[in-house]
Amino acid sequence: MSSSVVTIPVESLETLAVRFFERSVGQWNSKRRYYTLKNGETQEVVSDLTIEFLSHAHPTLLDLADTHGLEDALICGIQFAWESSYISPSRKQSTGSTSFGIRGNMLYRDRGFATTNPVVASYEFRDRNTMQLHTEYNGSVFDEELKLVGENYRTRQTIISRAGQEIMIGQYLETRT
Q: Is residue 5 included in any domain, yes or no?
């Protein structure tokens, strides 16, 4: 992640996350590409996304806290559902959902990008519109940046590394529908 990230007190960090999640609520169309760096292969995916805000005592957040063995409830979170069509190289489809919850500078998920197991990411904000996530599991590192661009656009970029070597880049443009 960038060395220009401003350190923000935990209380302010949580407030930024709540506002970021609230601003992300809605229906989105996601167009993305995954670039495999070793062989140059590119995969294109189009998804319809639904993002729902989860308040402090939402049953999904209580279950998520329990899954992670947390005694205290999570501050807030989101439920993220998708329906995807892989454009190239194959035409397979995928549907699913995942839930996220925050407390302090940690983001708790019921599943990871490449696993169905619960994962934890650290997060920070470069500015009020840009959330950065860092997740590690199964020998892989996922560095992700989500940026709200006005009210109707989001960009995302994910860099996946293994053994200190970048192996894949995902770039996304999401449009509110």
A: no
